């Protein structure tokens, strides 16, 4: 595996530190405008302008609205992905500062999206500039920095478009989602399930004349709860999801234990009834299902269909998967199932070993941060996984393109009021991104 010299690594770190003020200003400029899913136009314009300013060889926006910058002309394409949409701000009363105006001090930057996850795109843009400044780009690789849209609405939809419609397939992708100083090699998958139950309405004064859909759903939800909470003993009527950590039920149990067991929970409930004085004639619930290694959308739907209460009510119950078809800010509609596959990169994969080697040569064996964050980071394993979902569900989960994660900020800041990130992380990530391709391209 090729390595950079100690002198080259020090130059990368010094240049990344030198661009700290530029990266901070760039991040503040993006955050200054709202950029919720399907409304990312202002973010795209700001990022495109910055890519052009720092000298990318090619900058374009695809029909879906993903902004892409390319640097170099080598054979191997290495991509750096950062989604540029955010969730809403929630209750403004929970913020101590304006979520778009943000705030800045010597160590931190505040604002909606600074951790989740605009900071990653900022570091990647300046990493490409560092590669160009130091002459690291060669005939072996070309880098692509992409700011992707609609991730918060539908993780991976953007990469389905990039892969299938733009016809771009990188050798591997670095996800710049926040990793709290660690290298992340996987995540649990997820899917959105719907259960519909039919009933028959009647006057509430004589409920026996009808068939109450709410009572049927109550039975079903009790079984769903058991599926999440029960163990996996043979004597258990409803064997719990923890069974996937058991070699007896899952031949991929080792990686399942690494990512953690799957979960299921009711997230929404809907009903219809003629009035408050009548029996409900339909009920539906949404289930948030998190999947570990060895679970598929088919197996997750089937385990709901096999619950005793679902089988009891027969044809009155329909179990299905949601679909997503919301237009992007450009008006493109790209329908997809709400299924976001589990993925995990093996520890001995070349992308993983290259990332670990580059990190250790740059920064040592432990996670780093600033004076405030380092103590709580360095006690955690360097190689770890996300608890939430990322675009990796499409990149690797659906399309088999290897993904490694390293990004500024922290998962705990995602979707939270008073969201912050750290300037030190912007610098660290820019340096790592700039060094990694040389380690991979032997």
Automatic annotation (TrEMBL):
Its cofactor is Zn(2+). GO terms for molecular function: acetylornithine deacetylase activity; metal ion binding. One of its GO terms (biological process) is L-arginine biosynthetic process. This is YgeY family selenium metabolism-linked hydrolase. It holds the Pfam family M20_dimer. Keywords: Hydrolase, Metal-binding, Zinc. InterPro entries: ArgE/DapE_CS (IPR001261), Bact_exopeptidase_dim_dom (IPR036264), Peptidase_M20 (IPR002933), Peptidase_M20/DapE_YgeY (IPR017706), Peptidase_M20_dimer (IPR011650), Peptidase_M20A (IPR050072). Coiled coil: none annotated.
